Amino acid sequence: MQTNEPQGGVLRVLQSKDETRAFYDKISGVYDLLAELSEGPVRQAGVDKLDLAQGERVLEIGYGTGHCIVQLARAVGPEGKVFGIDLSPGMQARARDRITAENLLDRVELSCADANHLPYPDSSMDAVFMSFTLELFDTPEIPLVLAECKRVMRAGGRIGVVAITKEGGEGFAIDAYEWTHRHFPNLLDCRPIFARQSLEKSGFSIKYMSIANMWVPVEIVVAEKV
Prior knowledge:
Distance between the termini: 38 Å
CATH superfamily: Vaccinia Virus protein VP39
CATH class: Alpha Beta
Largest sheet: 7 strands, mixed
Strand content: 15-25%
Strand order of the largest sheet: 3-2-1-4-5-7-6
Oligomer: single chain
Radius of gyration: 16 Å
Number of helices: 7
Helix content: 25-40%
């Protein structure tokens, strides 16, 4: 039986994929009201540090309501292509509405699937981006997801990760976050992780790392496939 005892200092995820999908379907209509004010500036910082170029092919894992998909599509221009994968059909519908309103459907392709098995060919992406997504995967899944990211990236491609972090030691905010995750995992399904360390263990070369202060600390990491 799976418990929420830490593995490598990181709490486990107790929600099943079906429960996670149902949760995000349920809150998709109000997600921006709940999170955009706090998450938006940090996500944007991650997109900026990825330093996309016109004509590139980019994958976003966990696109949610589509804010970053729009920014990525603008960054790669009409000759580029942005792919998105998310577990929630509700989020997919919200993201599609946003992309349609921005007249960017011609350069965006959205999928609804699990990132443990990315439906893209080897070496097909110049960059991969995810924000507030890697910490939704159970601890043993994180290296599997990063291995899939590495597979679909070309040599020299970049990956950008924005994630709630345990870097820098313990504090009241992290303690409170983890307590809530332990006792109410149906309400707070993600938990702080070590993003940079996970990328390094997966064989990526770290090019940039900083910690932003939301109401909890957040890592912004950009790494390269070598």
